[in-house]
Amino acid sequence: MLHVEPIPILDDNYAWLLRCPATGATAVADPAVAAPVLARVQALGGRLDWILLTHHHGDHVAEVPQVAAATGARVAGHAADAHRLPSLDLAVKPGETFTLGEAAAQVLDTPGHTRGHIAWAFVEGQALLCGDTLFSIGCGRLLEGTAAEMFASLRALAALPDAMRVCCGHEYTLSNLRYARHVEPDNQALAAHEAEVKARRARGEPSLPTTLGLEKALNPFLRARDVAELAALRSGKDDFR
C-alpha cells in the first residue's frame, strides 16, 4: 500500500505526498505552494520524482514550476488541458495507466468541476487523488461542467473499491457535514461522523483521507440516484449558509 499524507497549503487546500514503499519513488499531487511541499519532501530525504495534477485551478498548480525546478520532478497532467496547466513532461489521457515505482494508477476522466479534470486511482495502492471532484461528504462546484458530467464522474469513482483512501483537494468536511445533516436531519450515522470529525479537527488533525466505503455510505452526492437528484443537491449546497 502506498504511503499517503496530506500537506496543508493555503487556507484549506491539501497537496498530497505519495511514496512507493518498495522503491522509494515519490510523487506529490497539486502542490500549489512550494515552501511547505519542499520542506516535507526534504524531511523525507529530498526525493521527488513526479508532480501529478488533477486540474488547472491556481490553488492546485500555482507554484508547480518552483517545485519542479527545486526537485527535478517531472510534471504529469491531462493532455486535453495542457494549455491551461504548467508545462507537462507527461501528458496523459483517461484510460491510460501511470506508474509510481511498483504502484499503478488508472487515469480517470472526472469532469464537472472543470472540463479537464482527471483523477489518479492507485487501486492496489489504495489511494485516490480526486482533486475537487469528490470531497468528504461533498462534491465540487459545477464551475465548467454539468450535473450530468459530475454524476458520471462520481459514478466512476464509486465503482472503485471501498478500501480506497480518498485524497481530495480541500478540508471542507465539516461544512459538507452541516449541509448533509440539513438534508438528512435524522441520519444518526452522519451525526456520529460529524462528532468524530469535530474532535479530530479540534486536535489540529486533518479529516482526510477518508475512505471510499465511508463516502458511499454517508456522502449524499455519491448516493444520488440520478442526475436530477445530484443537481438539486449541488444547487442546495451552493445556496446553503
Notes on the protein architecture:
The chain has a six-stranded mixed β-sheet, covered by helices on one side. A six-stranded mixed β-sheet has the order 7-8-9-10-13-14. A two-stranded antiparallel ribbon has the order 11-12. Helix 1 (34-43) runs parallel beside helix 3 (64-71) and helix 4 (147-158) packs across helix 8 (227-239). It starts with a strand and ends with a helix. It contains eight helices and 14 strands. The protein is globular and about 50 Å long. With 241 residues, the chain is an alpha/beta fold. The protein has one domain: 4-Layer Sandwich (Metallo-beta-lactamase, Chain A), CATH 3.60.15.10. The model has no long low-confidence stretch (mean pLDDT 98).
Approximately what portion of the residues adopt beta-strand conformation?
Answer: 15-25%
Q: What is the C-alpha radius of gyration, as a whole number of Å?
A: 17 Å
Q: What's the helical proportion of residues? A: 25-40%
Count of all domains: 1
Structural class: alpha/beta
List the helices and strands and how they pair.
Layout lengths: L2 E7 L3 E7 L6 E4 L4 H10 L6 E3 L5 H4 L2 H8 L2 E5 L11 E3 L4 E4 L2 E7 L8 E5 L4 E5 L2 E2 L2 E2 L7 H12 L6 E4 L4 H11 L4 H15 L7 E2 H7 L8 H13 L2
Helix pairs in contact: 1-3, 4-8, 5-6
In short:
With 241 residues, the chain is of the alpha/beta class. Helices cover 33% and strands 25% of the residues. It has one domain (3-239): Metallo-beta-lactamase, Chain A (4-Layer Sandwich), CATH 3.60.15.10.
